[in-house]
Structures are given as structure tokens and as C-alpha cells.
């Protein structure tokens, strides 16, 4: 899902830069591009820091499915984990003072980079060193923690030296081999591009386009991406809807049946849903909110 991946929102996806309730800690999130040579496998790098809350509360955020997996390093401890592709929304609470850096893999690169069955990581969080050899785990966690601005980096001030990170070091060859020469199956990339577009063609049609049966396509995507074709289609529609509703210059809403709000019927059709009820069902299924509620939360305007 090479091109569609570029259109996904940020890691926090709804509440990255604001408190979510009175007393919540404030979250600060940023992302930046990976080195050019990594871009076939890596969507972006990112950082999130949590301030102390008014009453010492953590930061609660809604993380919606986007088809990707993240490798995340907790800077203060050096702990590295892999958060696999999600089929449902989760609501983690991040502790005051938490500091994370992450590497977001493109959907089609999960198995190619980590050499694990994608389905085993669906809706899962696993220590990085339980998935990949120790040398690669150390190289990957070091690059995430310290490589902020290019092929080498000085790293964040204040990071713990006891975490095993080595600021200023070149990116090891073992890591470049995984990210630059990741053996991404071109059929997976092609299938993802078809499933992400609007309107998405039927699964069997996508399978025929890349020379597979429907069952073979499902097995391939589960192994390489961690999600089946129907789930990827639903996730793609969700993010098309969000992209249309939140695009720069988009009107905030219109009067519809005497009530101000977004033109959900028009957005639904443009995003590839059959109609507005279809939009509502799928958004609720993936995010636990109705479309208007999700958009309001993401704007920071939920009452």
C-alpha cells in the first residue's frame, strides 16, 4: 500500500497535541520523513512526549486502525516494542512524562522487514527482541532513539545512556539491509493500492488482477500485512472519509435537515461507501464512535 500509505494521519490520529479531558496530561507529537533509501519500507518516523497532567493523570488517546505496524522505543528506558496492525480502536493511557520515538512501517513491508508472520502481530504488542535477532533489535532501537535527522544523528538530549543507545553512530549495515533491500512482494503492494482506492473493487477482482484466487490473496495479505483484504478495504475507506472531511479548505459543515453538521451523505459516497448508513456502521465498527463524534473528537470539539 505504497501510495495510499502516504495519506494516513499521524500516529496519535486524534488527540496527539491536546489534553483529552480536564486534568489529562498534554501530548506533543511530531513526525518526519525517513532517509530516502528507507522509504519503500518506512512510512515515517515520529516522536511523542507526554507532559505531567494537572492532577497527575496520564494522556488518554484514541488510536484508530491504519493498516500499519510501528516499532516504538520508550526513550527513558530503552524498551523497544512492535505494535502490530490493528483491526479495532484502542484507548491507551500514556503516563505523565512518557517519551516515545517510533518507526512506522508501510503495510506491505511488515513481514519483509521483521521476517515474521503478519497475522501473528494483528492487534498485538510484542517486545522487539522477541521477534528479531538481538543484533538487529539493537540496531533498530538505536536508530529509532537517536537517528532524528538523517543517516546519522546526535539523539535526544537527556536520553538514558544505560538504555544501550549510542548517539552519533552510523546506521548499521544489518539495519540498512532490512530497510533498503526489504524483499517486499510486489503483489502485496499492487493489491493494497487496489483495495485502498475508491470505490474498492471486489476482492475476487483484485485477486485476479494479480494472478491469484480470492483465498490465495487472503492468505498472502494475512501473512505479509497481518490484515485480510476486507479489513484493509474498510480501513482504506475510513481514512479516505477522514481525509475528505478534514482536508484543508473543506467547509466545516452545512445545514442538513435543519441541523448544522458535515455533509455525511456526500462524504460517504466520495469515500467509497454505499451510503451514509454504511459509513456510520463501518466507522462505529472501527472507531467506537459515530462519524460526527469522531470528527468532533479529532477537532478537539467534543463536548
Question: What's a quick, concise take on this entry?
Answer:
The chain has 303 residues and is of the alpha+beta class. It has eleven helices and ten strands.
Specify the structural class. alpha+beta
Low-confidence stretches: 2-15, 17-22, 148-165, 253-258
Please indicate the count of domains: 2
Number of strands: 10
Q: Can you describe this structure?
A:
This protein has 303 residues and is α+β, with helices and mostly antiparallel strands. Helices cover 35% and strands 15% of the residues. The protein has a six-stranded antiparallel β-sheet, covered by helices on one side. Helix 5 packs across helix 8 and helix 8 (229-245) packs across helix 9. It is globular, with a radius of gyration of 20 Å. The two termini are 36 Å apart.
Task: Name some characteristics of this structure.
single chain, 303 residues, alpha+beta, six-stranded antiparallel sheet, globular
Architecture blueprint of SSEs:
Blueprint: H1 2-5, E1 27-32, E2 42-50, E3 59-60, E4 69-74, E5 79-83, E6 93-94, E7 99-105, H2 110-114, E8 125-127, H3 134-146, H4 173-180, H5 186-196, H6 203-209, H7 214-224, H8 229-245, E9 254-256, E10 259-261, H9 264-271, H10 276-287, H11 291-299
Amino acid at each position: 500500500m505504497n501510495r495510499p500509505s502516504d495519506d494516513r494521519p499521524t500516529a496519535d490520529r486524534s488527540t496527539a497535541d491536546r489534553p483529552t479531558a480536564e486534568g489529562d496530561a498534554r501530548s506533543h507529537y511530531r513526525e518526519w520523513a525517513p532517509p530516502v533509501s528507507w522509504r519503500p519500507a518506512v512510512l515515517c518516523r515520529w516522536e511523542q512526549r507526554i507532559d505531567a497532567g494537572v492532577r497527575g493523570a496520564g494522556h488518554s488517546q484514541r488510536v484508530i486502525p491504519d493498516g500499519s505496524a510501528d516499532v516504538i522505543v520508550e526513550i527513558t528506558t530503552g524498551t523497544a516494542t512492535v505494535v502490530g496492525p490493528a483491526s479495532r480502536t484502542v484507548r491507551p493511557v500514556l503516563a505523565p512524562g512518557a517519551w516515545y520515538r517510533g518507526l512506522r512501517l508501510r503495510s506491505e513491508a511488515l513481514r519483509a522487514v521483521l521476517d515474521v508472520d503478519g497475522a501473528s502481530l494483528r492487534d498485538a504488542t510484542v517486545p522487539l527482541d522477541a521477534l528479531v535477532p538481538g543484533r538487529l533489535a539493537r540496531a533498530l532501537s538505536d536508530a529509532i532513539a537517536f537517528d532524528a535527522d538523517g543517516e546519522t544523528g546526535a539523539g535526544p538530549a537527556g536520553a538514558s545512556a544505560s538504555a544501550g543507545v549510542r548517539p552519533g553512530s552510523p546506521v548499521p549495515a544489518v539495519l540498512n539491509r532490512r530497510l533498503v533491500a526489504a524483499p517486499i512482494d510486489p503483489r502485496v503492494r499492487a493489491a493494497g493500492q487496489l483495495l485502498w482506492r475508491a470505490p474498492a473493487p471486489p476482492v475476487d477482482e483484485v485477486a485476479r488482477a494479480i494472478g491469484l484466487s480470492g483465498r490465495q490473496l487472503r492468505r498472502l495479505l494475512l501473512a505479509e500485512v497481518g490484515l485480510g483484504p476486507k479489513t484493509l478495504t474498510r480501513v482504506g475507506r475510513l481514512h479516505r472519509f477522514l481525509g475528505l472531511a478534514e482536508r484543508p479548505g473543506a467547509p466545516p459543515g452545512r445545514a442538513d435537515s435543519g441541523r448544522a453538521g458535515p455533509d455525511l451523505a456526500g462524504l460517504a459516497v466520495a469515500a467509497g461507501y454505499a451510503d451514509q448508513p454504511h459509513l456510520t456502521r463501518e466507522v462505529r465498527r472501527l472507531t467506537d464512535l459515530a462519524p460526527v463524534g469522531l470528527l468532533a473528537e479529532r477537532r478537539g470539539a467534543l463536548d
